[in-house]
Design brief:
The complex is a heterodimer of chains A (449) and B (475). Chain A is mostly helical and 449 residues long. Helices cover 74% and strands 3% of the residues of chain A. In chain A, a hairpin with a 7-residue loop joins strand 1 and strand 2. The chains are: A mainly alpha (449), B mainly alpha (475).
Chain lengths: 449, 475
């Protein structure tokens, strides 16, 4: 094994090594939780991996058999795209652990479950094998089932039940479809994805998988409920995974179905546009700050489908930008929706965040809309008009947010009682760092893609 | 050493029965002897199982039926391979765990339970169908006594049904044995018509198939097994639940020896039948109102998948099916023990108390997940293997069988969040975390199930080798 492989293995193993410390009550209940330590350690381990993957332009591959003579294999590889998603996600997990440690009561248990999701995250993102992808997908469903149920057990157990009844079967079904897809499509090749090997029958299955994986309004109401009611840390962990799932399934398109016909793309595009319209509508109708800002992640998820609808064979850059940007963005707006803006640092944070949301040149939102816009122009007048309307709606929504929060004589209530309202400048400083960091990462990715 | 040890392991549980029969020991002493005998039997199987890993010869090995060499030598020998020893080890382990939860029963109950366990282990070691039939016939009376001594309201009805079903199974097995022994099988009650020809071998195969289904208590002969889940006494219920393994064992071990052609001929039809049965069972699991009923339907799903694996007639399916039989023999009793422990606490135990009662909380999360075949459980790999075995030859059955899994998973939400202990009746309630005896009854199974899930290759590889030999012999 090379040094890169050892480092990658160590990176994967960190949460498993840290997990037993949650059994020590003093450690798990402290402000610097073991989960935050694990996330920080992982970020440190990623620094040398960046050198291997980006500067030496090599993928790091790990491959191990589970059962002899049967192609049950752990096939993982880390390339430029996956590294980008992982680096951003680790910072988000760090933020999630910090948010979790602000909770009173069950923070040890929630921190442990978030650590479990952190353990599964790179396995999911880096898997090259549908068996592993499906297995991790199902396991994620279990982890989030308990994470949501435990976090809403005391005051809103009915809502927890409602969210898990929607989310858990979807995750389970996704995992099974991935396995079924692998068994029926690639069974003889050890469930590994093959270039351009998808059949027409399974294309429909893949499209179903894709639409199921993206929590698009109006049928995926659970994400709205989750944003409104779950603790910020849990919502953030959930969105990190949702972005990864969407990216994973979207990227399968470029491998298995590089020559997707226009009618299929149009179908995906229309579903995405419908989702965008519904989420913007719910933003305008929202009564609280949390619900208003919480509609934006759903909008961006729908935008992934739009970007797939206008994509060229292997060009999925706008979907990639969304998936990298969305977890950070969600973490930042969740914090912004709960905080009390008092100090200069906190005011600066809110200002920078709104600039980020608005989509000034150089920001991820600018890149996302720029990429979709240029492709829409290529595809003709109809696509261009719809894109214009979409951009106009998004811009109006931003103006609405700024007006309601800063200019209204009676700004909307937070809509949630959160421990984050009492955080000081440290959190806001970390928020500013993340805003700058995500701009840097997306610009770097934009130059490399 | 291995043959002698397996023989000792099989017959050790008979000692308490004999002691009870002659009236030498009573009450607590008899119970203590039964516990000692079952623990010793389990330890013998543990040594043999450990030896099979260390031994260079992975093939089957034989043991004498009784310690005296004649007149029991020759064909009347035990025939053990890794799979049968593993099944016996798992089942005897469940019986040992049972003693920690069940209070000392009456003399007749302890004696009949011990005799039943001895017959059960003897059936797993049977080298031929006759010996298997003898062991099953020997279990009929203890089975009847165990049910009759229970406190359930409808115990007489359950016992009568069980007796009738058991006799039909025994009769079916011995009919096949006699017809094979007399060498008259090819011409035996052959019915030939203008369009259809039902050969004697076909009848023989279906007799054996029906016997296996009755012994397993699997769909469509599941009604009696469902009632057994409602028994009050654990000493009656758990060994009878374990008996399901024997039906699967009968199909894998003996039907392939005598009726390979018929299995190839009718296998596809029966495979589709069990795919549908798995789906029906999963819907039953989803819709059942009580915890024990849910566990029953979950076992049905697992057994149906085992049968699907068997009828796929390829190595992946056989490996998945045979390993699933062992998995359910470990997971289902453990789930029953947990359900009973939670029952004692009423519906008061909820997740909010997980910090106060961590052992019970962790067990209540892990066991349902494992039993549902979540990833990182052996059941999951078995499900994948069985489904994988259908790719190509029986692709149409995949969606039907596959659909049973999400239906089960959806129904599983009803047991996943500390709702395994809804009690049908009231009764005295206790509070607090697991008592030491409950801990010992439940946690070894959880640890072993986790180990099987984390390192499945350790168990699947030798079972795969056994299965390969059986499949080769059939072909």
């Amino acid at each position: 094994m090379s040094l890169g492989q050892w480092l990658f293995l160590a990176y994967l193993a960190v949460p498993a090594a840290v997990a037993p410390t949650f059994a020590v009550r003093k450690l798990s209940q402290g402000r610097a939780s073991p989960g935050a330590v694990a996330a920080a350690l992982r970020i440190l381990l990623l620094i040398p991996l960046v050198r291997f993957v980006i500067f030496d332009t090599q993928s790091i591959i790990l491959n191990a058999g589970i059962v002899e003579d049967y192609p049950f294999r752990l096939a993982l590889s880390l390339d430029f795209f996956r590294l980008g998603i992982i680096v951003v996600a680790e910072f988000c997990f760090l933020l999630a652990h910090a948010m979790c440690s602000m909770n009173e009561g069950r923070r040890g248990l929630l921190g442990f479950l978030i650590l479990l999701s952190e353990l599964l995250f790179p396995l999911y993102v880096c898997s090259d094998n549908l068996m592993l992808t499906g297995v991790v997908q199902i396991t994620i469903g279990f982890v989030f089932y308990y994470l949501i149920r435990f976090s809403l057990m005391d005051h809103s157990s009915d809502i927890g039940d409602q969210i898990t009844k929607s989310l858990y079967p979807v995750y389970y079904a996704l995992g099974l479809i991935l396995l079924f897809w692998g068994l029926s499509e690639f069974g003889e090749h050890g469930l590994a994805l093959q270039k351009a090997s998808g059949s027409r029958l399974n294309l429909v299955l893949w499209m179903f998988l894709l639409i199921l994986s993206v929590p698009v309004a109006p049928w995926a109401r659970w994400l709205g409920l989750a944003v409104a009611h779950l603790p910020e840390a849990v919502t953030l962990a959930l969105v990190i995974f949702l972005s990864a799932i969407t990216w994973k399934i979207s990227s399968m398109f470029s491998v298995a179905y590089p020559d997707l016909e226009w009618k299929y793309k149009l179908g995906i595009y229309l579903v995405g546009i419908t989702g965008c319209a519904f989420s913007i509508g719910s933003l305008f109708a929202a009564q609280s700050r949390r619900l208003m800002l919480g509609s934006l992640p759903t909008f961006f998820f729908s935008l992934i489908l739009v970007s797939l609808g206008v994509s060229q064979s292997k060009l999925l850059s706008s979907a990639y930008y969304v998936c990298v940007f969305l977890p950070v963005f969600t973490g930042l707006i969740l914090y912004a929706s709960a905080m009390n803006v008092r100090t200069a640092v906190e005011k600066s944070y809110v200002g920078i965040l709104l600039a980020l949301i608005l989509g000034l040149p150089g920001t991820p939102v600018y890149l996302i809309f720029g990429t979709i816009g240029s492709r829409s122009l290529d595809m003709g007048l109809g696509y261009t008009i719809i894109f214009g309307l979409l951009w106009f709606l998004y811009f109006s929504a931003n103006v609405h947010i700024c007006r309601r929060i800063f200019l209204d004589p009676e700004p909307p209530e937070a809509g949630v009682i959160s421990p984050l309202s009492k955080t000081g400048s440290a959190f806001a400083s970390f928020g500013i760092f993340l805003c700058v960091f995500i701009v840097f990462v997306t610009m770097f990715a934009g130059r490399s893609l | 050493m291995n043959p002698a040890l397996t023989t000792i392991a099989v017959f050790l549980p008979l000692i308490p029965s004999l002691m009870a029969l002659f009236g030498v020991l009573r009450e607590k002493r008899l119970w203590a002897l039964a516990v000692s005998a079952h623990v010793a039997s389990w330890l013998c199987f543990t040594v043999v199982l450990a030896g099979s890993y260390l031994s260079s010869d992975k093939g089957p090995f034989e043991g004498l039926l009784l310690l005296g060499p004649t007149p029991w030598s020759g064909p009347f020998r035990f025939h053990w391979d890794f799979w049968s020893i593993f099944l016996a080890w798992v089942a005897s382990g469940a019986v040992v765990s049972l003693h920690f939860l069940a209070s000392a029963g009456s003399r007749a109950l302890v004696a009949s339970m011990s005799a039943f366990v001895a017959c059960f282990l003897a059936a797993l070691g049977a080298g031929n169908l006759f010996l298997f039939g003898v062991a099953i016939a020997g279990a009929v009376l203890p089975r009847f006594v165990m049910i009759s001594l229970d406190g359930a309201e409808n115990k007489i009805q359950i016992a009568m049904e069980a007796a009738v079903f058991s006799l039909i199974a025994v009769l079916a097995i011995f009919t096949v044995v006699l017809s094979i022994a007399s060498g008259s099988m090819p011409s035996w009650i052959g019915i030939e018509g203008e369009r259809y020809e039902v050969t004697a071998s076909t009848i023989g195969f279906f007799l054996l198939f029906v016997a296996a289904m009755i012994i397993s208590g699997i769909f469509p002969f599941h009604s009696n097994m469902r009632k057994i889940y409602g028994l009050n006494r654990l000493y009656g219920m758990v060994p009878l639940v374990l008996q399901s393994v024997l039906g699967i064992f009968l199909m894998f071990r003996f039907s392939t020896q005598y009726f390979p052609e018929q299995i190839r001929q009718f296998g596809p039809v029966l495979l589709y039948f069990y795919a549908a049965a798995a789906l029906v069972s999963s819907i039953g699991f989803c819709g059942s109102a009580f915890a024990r009923d849910r566990i029953f339907w979950l076992q049905q799903v697992l057994l149906c998948f085992s049968m699907i694996g068997f009828f796929s007639l390829n190595q992946k399916g056989w490996l998945g099916g045979s390993a699933l039989a062992a998995f359910q023999a470990l997971a289902i009793p453990a789930l029953l023990f947990l359900s009973i422990s939670l029952d004692k606490r009423g519906s008061g135990f909820v997740g909010s108390k997980i910090a106060d009662f961590p052992w019970m909380g962790v067990a209540s999360i892990l066991l349902p997940l494992i039993a549902l075949g979540a990833p990182l459980s052996l059941g999951f790999y078995c499900f994948v293997l069985v489904l994988w075995s259908l790719a190509g030859g029986f692709s149409a059955a995949i969606p039907v069988a596959l659909l049973a899994i999400p239906v089960c998973a959806f129904g599983g939400m009803r047991i996943m969040f500390f709702r395994l202990g809804e009690s049908e009746s009231g009764g005295e309630r206790i509070a607090g975390d697991f008592s030491p005896s409950e801990f010992v009854a439940v946690y070894p199974s959880i640890i072993f199930l986790l180990l099987m899930g984390i390192a499945p290759g350790i168990f699947l590889a030798p079972i795969g080798a056994t299965v390969a030999v059986m499949l080769k012999a059939m072909n």
